[in-house]
Known about the structure:
mainly alpha, 81% helix, globular
Amino acid sequence: MTHPALNAVGEYQAADNSAIAYADPHELILRLMNGAIERIAQARGAISRGEIAIKAESISKAVLIVGGLEGCVNHQAGGELADNLSSLYQYMGIRLAEANIHDDIAKLNEVSDLLLQIRSAWVQIPQQAQTADV
């Protein structure tokens, strides 16, 4: 059975496809987070250079990746924490859309900061828990 993260990884093509095929769910989520953070950085640069098409494409990819992250949240195992994380991912999607409409670097920074905080916690998950359902 394919993990939901594999569907979202298609939006993050910087990784080696063979590495993705053999990555565990924990690593896939980490790759998605990294991909979203990178796309946001690209959008930030595009805004500062006035490259509207690149900005829109980068933010659109970030929105898809964040949506993929939300789709990977295990509500059955995660309870209230999972619900809160899911709501946070939805909020990020909204903020990214607003950043796209208004060329708002502050909103991009906000989402990037949120993702970095989640990523920081994610990489600290003990090894034995990494193989459990995410």
